[in-house]
Amino acid sequence: MAPKDYDAIVLASFGGPEGQEDVIPFLRNVTRGRGIPDERLEEVSHHYRAFGGISPINQQNRELKAAMEAELKRRGVDLPVLWGNRNWAPFIADTLKDAYDAGHRRILAVTTSAYSCYSSCRQYREDLGMALVETGLDGRLEVDKVRQYFDHPGFVEPFVEGLSAGLASVRSALAARGEHDAAVHVMFATHSIPMGDAEAAGPRSGDAADSPPAYEDGAYVAQHLATAQAILDRVPAAADAGWSLVYQSRSGAPHVPWLEPDINDALKDLAAGGGKGVVIVPLGFVSDHMEVVWDLDTEAKETCAELGLAVARVPTPGTHATFVSGLIDLVLERTTENIISERPALTELGPWYDVCRPNCCANRRGEKPTVAALDSTVGVSGLKPE
Questions:
Q1: What is the distance between the alpha carbons of residues 146 and 11, in angstroms, rounded to a whole number?
Q2: 113 vs 207, which has greater pLDDT?
Q3: 3-state class percentages of the chain: helix first, strand second, coil last, to nearest 5
Q4: Strand runs (DSSP E) across the chain, as ranges?
Q5: CATH, range 153-313
Q6: Beta carbons within 10 angstroms of residue 83's beta carbon
Q7: What is the mean pLDDT of residues 61-65?
Q8: DSSP string covering 153-208, please?
Q9: Which helix (H) or strand (E) is 70 found in, with range?
Q10: pLDDT per residue over 367-383, tens digit each?
Q11: What is the spatial distance between Cα 48 and Cα 316, in angstroms, rounded to a whole number?
């Protein structure tokens, strides 16, 4: 996409409850349209309840917003950073309305999700598009989005640093147990999604000469595998380590197939095969939110303890200086003022598209207005502001 004169950035994220009384209303928002009763939601709320009903994600986004503001100031870039969530306050629609009322007319969105699939990309684009329609700002406020950044150096390098430290930690723990020659396995963990969504992730090949390639098993899996390899290639200490891509946080009807193996099943298989140590890399996540601190730091580490596996969990990018700088680089790829022309990508799959291709990460629940797409159903993409 050609550079534009953006006048604000919006940090768009998932959102999370900030007290016990917020948990069920939050889960209603997450599952809206699926007819799940409160009794069932209460059954799945235990991980939030265990942390006082507070998800870490909102505070992490406040810290990321502040870090982005500081990096912009350091570079002398005059762009305010706004913040809106899909499922909890501050909601995206309210953020866009406030932005318009403050005089902003052209906004660039940065989402806290690096990969391509319905829930990681298209749903954000739909939420932004629907917010414009619902607030009456369609045609009055323009919203674009930065590219998916799964293989941007700003996202990859913090994991490189973390994996190096994690391998050293686990090998030290094994040596203390007298298992000096024990092999260490690296598990790259990401959110499981339904197989249908995985297969629909990314653009599909068509008949046109310029059609993008199709990806075996979908772009979501392909991007994770490519990024994992890019990390391993940059960690000499991982040269003799086995590795695998595993999944976590499955939800939904049990008869619907989701991506596997589950991390806890994979840990059991590792131990059964004689494995002694594991480094868990939360490759699918930007920050240490609930699905990291519960599914990995609680459940997966409990599984490791039961199996006698030495374990280290690598930090997510969070507010790592390299990650924050990378996000600002992604913004400045798109601006007229302060533009940077370099578009780095550490895998052959990137750099990803600024504007999503037709049918990219198709919504099997029916089409909705979107931003940053060539197939917007109501013309929300590429609007001219007042």
A1: 11
A2: 113
A3: 40, 15, 45
A4: 8-13, 81-85, 106-111, 142-145, 184-191, 242-248, 277-281, 310-313
A5: 3.40.50.1400
A6: 19
A7: 98
A8: HHHHHHHHHHHHHHHHHHHHHHHHTT-TT--EEEEEEEE--BHHHHHH-S----SS
A9: helix 57-75
A10: 788 898 875 444 444 44
A11: 20
As given in the structure block, the two tokens for residue 127 are 């939420």
pLDDT per position as a tens digit, 220-265: 999 999 999 999 999 999 999 999 999 999 987 788 999 999 999 9
Per-residue confidence (pLDDT) for residue 365, from 0 to 100: 65
Greatest Cα-to-Cα distance within the chain, rounded to the nearest angstrom? 70
The pLDDT value given to residue 253: 77
Q: Residue 336 corresponds to which amino acid? A: T
Domain ranges of the chain: 8-149+320-332, 153-313
Common-topology check for domains 8-149+320-332 and 153-313: yes
- Is residue 173 within 8 Å of residue 310, measured between CB atoms? yes
Distances (CA, A) of 39 to 27, 36, 65, 197, 359: 11, 8, 35, 27, 36
Please, which residues have CB within 8 angstroms of residue 188's CB and are 6 or more apart in sequence? 224, 228, 231, 243, 244, 245, 246, 281, 283
Both tokens of residue 235?
């960690």
- Assigned architecture for domain 8-149+320-332: 3-Layer(aba) Sandwich (3.40)
Q: With 60 as the cut, is the pLDDT of residue 385 above it?
A: no
pLDDT of residue 36: 86
Give the number of other Cβ atoms within 10 Å of residue 91's Cβ: 17
- The three-class DSSP label of residue 10 is strand
Classify 233 as helix, strand or coil: helix
* In contact, 190 and 248? CB cutoff 8 Å: yes
Overall pTM surpassing 0.90 (yes/no): yes
Residue 55 has pLDDT above 70, yes or no: yes
Query: Are the beta carbons of 300 and 309 closer than 8 angstroms?
Result: no
